[in-house]
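Below is a filled-in request sheet from our internal design queue. Each sheet records the structural input a requester submitted and the sequence that came back. We keep these sheets so that new team members can see what a complete request looks like end to end.

REQUESTER: design group, bay 2
PRIORITY: normal
MODE: inverse folding
CHAIN LENGTH: 223
BACKBONE (tokenized):
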């Protein structure tokens, strides 16, 4: 089973379905544990998963940066052209690196671009920094908490930066540098990729039963 994050819901699903291996994007525990007890949520999940014999593999930043990883898939969902890593690994022949950068097939307005993004990712709302009549042509992307790549996007002369989430001060910095920010939400900027990963693993290993967790969900809702 693939999932974005091992949560109580996705862990219970894995145990109930007698999963042998969970491939999650985010590692469990996300922060190191000094003690393995049942006093915290991550430790309780680990106890249950270990007892059930469920293994977990979490590539995280490797999956972010892979040649067919989350950021590459994200750039494809946005229909970017001439895509390359935003922060490339030196002399890498397989286009590995953090984030992605690319161009729209033709220039557009931020308002139209945001409408297309909402439709593509089935989101009810998106936080946006910038004027809705601002031009969009050169776009940087970084999944998850990608606000730390704003400076690289600026150096690459991007007019727009699509990421999951960014801090308040990063938003102010983007505005000061006339870079439009499109914030999909952490979950929406990454979850689609573990669904794609499940399909790829199922096709590659046809003897296995592979699916993306049906129990995990975005903890944030628009009301």
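RETURNED SEQUENCE:
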């Amino acid at each position: 089973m693939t999932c974005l994050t091992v949560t109580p819901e996705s862990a219970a699903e894995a145990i109930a379905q007698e999963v042998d291996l969970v491939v999650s994007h985010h590692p469990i525990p996300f922060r190191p544990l000094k003690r393995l007890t049942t006093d915290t949520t991550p430790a309780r999940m680990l106890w249950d998963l270990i007892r059930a014999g469920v293994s977990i593999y979490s590539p995280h930043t490797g999956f972010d940066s892979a040649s067919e990883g989350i950021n590459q898939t994200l750039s494809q969902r946005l229909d970017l052209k001439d895509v390359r890593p935003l922060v490339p690994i030196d002399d890498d022949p397989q286009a590995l690196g953090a984030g992605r950068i690319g161009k729209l097939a033709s220039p557009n307005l931020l308002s139209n671009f945001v409408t297309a993004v909402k439709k593509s990712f089935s989101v009810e709302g998106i936080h946006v920094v910038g004027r809705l009549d601002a031009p969009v042509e050169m776009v940087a992307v970084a999944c998850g908490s990608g606000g730390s790549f704003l400076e690289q996007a600026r150096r690459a002369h991007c007019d727009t930066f699509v990421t999951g989430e960014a801090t308040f001060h990063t938003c102010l910095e983007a505005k000061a540098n006339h870079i439009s920010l499109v914030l999909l939400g952490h979950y929406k900027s990454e979850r689609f990729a573990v669904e794609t990963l499940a399909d790829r693993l199922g096709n590659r290993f046809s003897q296995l039963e592979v699916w993306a967790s049906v129990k995990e969900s975005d903890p944030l809702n628009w009301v």
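SHEET NOTES:
- The beta strands are 2-3, 21-24, 55-57, 81-88, 97-109, 127-129, 135-142, 160-163, 180-183.
- The domain at 63-183 is CATH 3.40.1390.30 (Udp-n-acetylmuramoylalanyl-d-glutamate--2,6- Diaminopimelate Ligase; Chain: A, domain 1).
FILED BY: M.R.
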